[in-house]
Amino acid sequence: MNTILVIGAGKSSIYLIEYLSEEVAKRGWNLIVADGQPALAAQKIKNPTRSKAVALDVTNTTELSALVNDCQIVISMMPHALHQRVAEVCIAHKKNLLTASYVDNEMKSLIPEIEEKGLLFLCEMGLDPGIDHMSAMKLIHDIQAKGGSIQSFYSHCGGLIHPDSDNNPWHYKITWNPRNVVNAGKAGAVFLKDGKQTQLPYAELFKNSPVLPVNGWGDYAWYANRDSISYIDIYKIPTVQNFVRTTLRKPDYNSGWQQMIEWGLTDDTHQYTFQQTSLGTFFQSHLEKNGHWNQWTSLRQNTDQVLTKQLLYLGFEDQNTLIPFEKGTATDVMEFVLETKLKLSAGDKDLIIMVHEIEYLLEGKHEKVTASLVVAGEDEAHTAMAKTVSMPLAIAAVKILEGSIAVTGLHIPTIPEIYEPVLEELERFGISFTEEKS
């Protein structure tokens, strides 16, 4: 009897667990949701007929092994740093593994064992990465099948706030791990521009952000995302002259975050000690220590300026909110700040926007296709982020167990055998693209 093991029941897992609990009930399979807080995990099980939540300390190899041994497929919703532990246990017990995280060198080191045991490890199977790969490769393969040659590829994606719930000067709220938001871009970015490899350091990444108009939703700014270059070979488009993967935000967000970077508020090297320290006290101390206090006092005189409003909103003068830990870096404080000041409120809706812009040559003519995806959240729990991150994983797990996906090895979803059945099922849940040609 098929059993699916989901490890981790955090914010992004709600649609995954709901969908799978319904599927296993219909199919006579079993679902186990393992988490450090099993009571919270149980609340996300929509149909308990053949589903249950259990306690798991993922760092306890004995506990983890016992659960993995009793299933056919594992979906890890844990932070990226814990995937390798789960992967090694999956190999030991000859179980397939799905994650939404990027493939790293540690995961690649397992390829010989994955292939030897005939397993499927499917990574980058979420939103970005995930839906971006699947939808882009479908477009690329369709163009190539007609004899087209890809010249330019821009892929934009953002987890954003719905206009109905946009009520702060950052035009942003947290729908996923706030630490990842604080750390976004720290490695800089590398991409292909006019046939040349271009590199931007962290300090330059959020400056002068280009703007992308999105039909019906307004203008969004973008910044280049990590290493785009490595995907040129993966996507098999050697003729491309521009290849950029980006993250979308509102323009005010990017300009405001640039100030955070310049003032060292995303630094994770210097340790502070906090003793009943308020946010306002920390910000003043940090800016004074780094020589930026005069800039803030000058800026503070203009209360109508967007940046002033943004910084006040984050708590630059907040003497009531205390930092809830004794030691930490500016990154730690900013993680707490985002989680506290930019959290979703009851009834808030988020928004996912993804846009592919592909230019190509076909029969000597320049053509362009723009494919757009917009998904709106239902409320603060059933977010568009959770839906788009977890539904590809849930669907893929079912397709693998029923035999619709039969490939083995370490994969990301760039081949038709994987992306075709998953994209087809995603359309049933309102996750589909509209295309415009020009």
List descriptors.
7-stranded mixed β-sheet; single chain; Rossmann fold; globular; 7-stranded parallel β-sheet; 18 strands; alpha/beta; Dihydrodipicolinate Reductase, domain 2; 438 residues
Provide a compact summary of the structure.
This protein is an alpha/beta fold and 438 residues long. It has helices spanning 14-27, 38-43, 61-69, 83-92, 105-108, 111-116, 131-145, 178-183, 202-205, 230-235, 251-262, 279-289, 293-300, 306-314, 330-341, 384-402, 416-427; strands at residues 3-7, 30-35, 51-55, 73-76, 96-99, 120-122, 149-161, 189-193, 196-200, 211-214, 218-224, 242-249, 272-273, 327-328, 350-362, 365-376, 409-411, 434-437.
CATH class of the largest domain: Alpha Beta
- How many strand elements? 18
Radius of gyration: 23 Å
Mean pLDDT: 96
Corresponding CATH architecture of the largest domain: 2-Layer Sandwich
Please state roughly what percent of the residues sit in beta strands, choosing from under 5%, 5-15%, 15-25%, 25-35%, 35-45% or over 45%.
15-25%
Overview of the structural elements:
With 438 residues, this protein is α/β, with parallel strands linked by helices. It has two domains: 3-123, NAD(P)-binding Rossmann-like Domain (Rossmann fold); 131-376, 2-Layer Sandwich (Dihydrodipicolinate Reductase, domain 2). Helices cover 37% and strands 24% of the residues. The protein is built from 17 helices and 18 strands. The strands form four sheets. The protein has a seven-stranded parallel sheet, with helices on both faces. β1 (3-7), α1 and β2 (30-35) form a beta-alpha-beta unit. α7 (131-145) crosses α17 (416-427). The model has no long low-confidence stretch (mean pLDDT 96).
